TrEMBL record:
Keywords: Transferase. PANTHER family: TRNA N6-ADENOSINE THREONYLCARBAMOYLTRANSFERASE, TRNA THREONYLCARBAMOYLADENOSINE BIOSYNTHESIS PROTEIN TSAB. It comes from the Bacteria. One of its GO terms (biological process) is tRNA threonylcarbamoyladenosine modification. The keyword Manganese does not apply. This is tRNA (Adenosine(37)-N6)-threonylcarbamoyltransferase complex dimerization subunit type 1 TsaB. One of its GO terms (molecular function) is transferase activity. Residues 34-134 form the Gcp-like domain. One of its GO terms (cellular component) is cytosol. It comes from Phyllobacterium pellucidum. The keyword Transferase applies.
Amino acid sequence: MKLLALDTAANLCSVAVFDVETGVVLASNSEDIGKGHAERLMGAIEQTLQGAAVELIDISRIAVSVGPGSFTGVRVGVSTARGFALVLKCPVIGISTLQALAFDGARAFPGRPVLSIIDARRDEVYAQFYGKDGAAISKPLVTDLPAILDELAGRDMVLSGSGALLVNEGRDKPFDVATTAATGSIEAFARLGAAGEPPAEAPKPLYLRGLDVKPQQGFVMQRKVTE
């Protein structure tokens, strides 16, 4: 089974073709374009399919980033994935950028709890805690940096995402960092999409805030879950 993975949630326009049976990335393409995903995505898909020697009709599953991230970028990726899924009559799996970053964090530091954290601007971050087993132990949310720093006090966490730079700024003993990217690797999206169960409904963008929504306060992690 061949899987097509798409990520346009941040600055990258990333595509991969993944062989689910062998667990091998057949081809991938990742370009830092900042904006303009709508104009570049189809070309990147065509180039990646050619590199994998795979036709679009050979794709039997799609994985796509649902955010959080750029409003426009997320919408481009999700709408493209859903359109292909209708034509190909195949399932599409939505993967959050925070989940993909946690995957990358766990791969870099096996057996360690991970905080996926993305710089959301406006003195806010997107964040989600993951336990040692890779399972989420908090909901994805947007909050301010002081709330995250309070939760991290006395904890041994691996940071994964662009928000790691904010957390470690000025610290005498910085946290270990898996990546400072604003999104996960395209391989992470592919592998998570291959492992995920097809949902009953098509994925929707994960927007943690509106244009004028204030950050959540009183952030509390689900401590009863084993880390």
